[in-house]
Amino acid sequence: MTTDYRLVGIAWRLDRLRWVPREVLAEVVLRDGLCMWGWTEDEPAWQEERLTDQELAAVLCSGCPVQDECLELELRAAGLDTVGVWGALSEDNRRALYPHWRQRGERAEDGATP
Ligand code: SF4
Asked: How far away, in angstroms, is 108 Cα from ligand 1 center?
């Protein structure tokens, strides 16, 4: 099995959010997540296209300022049961990321103190 160093890098990057409580992550994502605001007038053209999850993640989450918070939140909330597009990754990519992320150590909800 080969190591996907892109995913290892993402897992390392998420370390900065290890001790952020889940409710704070949720608040930030709900407040600032691009997809949380919907599209009222000009619906994105890609909604008419058949995209793979990876393509949809790239388009939907492009420019979202809270990709890491969204990803950290989804990994904590759903783990390997994650579905859909969150944190600029497809569900397959998040499942592949999960063991690398878990290997980085405890998170705020694991009951440990920083
Ligand atoms: S990263 Fe993607 S799924 Fe998460 S809030 Fe931003 S746009 Fe939405």
From this structure: 21
Q: For ligand 1, atom 2, which residue shows the shortest CA distance? A: 61
**Structural domain count of the chain:** 1
- Per the rule left: phi > 0, alpha: psi between -120 and 50, beta: everything else, 106 is beta
Domain that holds residue 98: 21-35+51-107
Give residue 44 CA to ligand 1 midpoint distance, Å: 15
**Which residue lies with its CA nearest to atom 5 of ligand 1?**
33
Is 7 contained in some domain? Answer: no
Residue 80 counted as domain residue = yes
At 70-85, the pLDDT tens digits run 999 999 999 999 999 9
Is 1 inside a domain boundary? no
Q: What is the pTM of this model?
A: 0.87
- For every residue of 4-42, which 3-state class applies, written as one string? CHHHHHHHHHHHHHCCCCHHHHHHHHHHHCHHHHCCCCC
